[in-house]
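Proteins fold reproducibly. Take a sample protein:
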Amino acid sequence: WRLKKDKPICLNQDVWDGFKAYWQLDATAHIAATNSVNRRSKRGGKGEAIHNGGAKTREEREIEMTAERGGVPPDWLELMRDMHTNKQTGEVQDPVARELLATLSKLKEDKEAQLQQSHQLSANDGSTASNMLSREEINQLVLENVPIKKGRRYGIGRTSEAISTSSSQLYVSSSSIVQYMERMKTELDEERSKRQAIEEQLRSVTAFISNLYPEQFSATQTQPDSATQSPDDRCF
């Protein structure tokens, strides 16, 4: 309305007129201005958090990234960067996440530089130790430097307080894996239902047209059958 745009189709005229009357009240303008200032002042003036992970949980994205990397799990620094990066611009939009990632990356670089110096000093003993931090060491770095607020760490959610160094394998609770699989199955079932509905509509339209133009249109050539179904349909 303030941008001189037309009424949205989803609103009837009475609701539209009611909204316009409401926004012309001085009290409404005062509330809107106060809320705007409050939003901008959150998190030390950095505003409201900007999320780029969608509806996926940290554990779900961790499972996906592990699969994408051929079974190699990401460390939590990589995971945080992935979940806070805008996939279109390739930039970390949220200022808090951007500052935190910069701090963690600098700490990681400093520790790896220390490792390199240490190994150079002991090079004469034939040591071949890596100058890179392991996944567990990076995860521990995240744990030690990301503060807890309301039981959660910014960017990675709820985590255990200790990182096991006995294995580099990804640890995700079995319940999270089950929930993720159930969600994927639900989405697959929904897609199948949509496809079946489209096929039913196509059959109806095909039958209607073939009745109108029996000589010019052959229904048997366009109706979907088992031969044109995908392997997924035949398997399930």
Observations:
- The chain is about 60% helix and 0% strand.
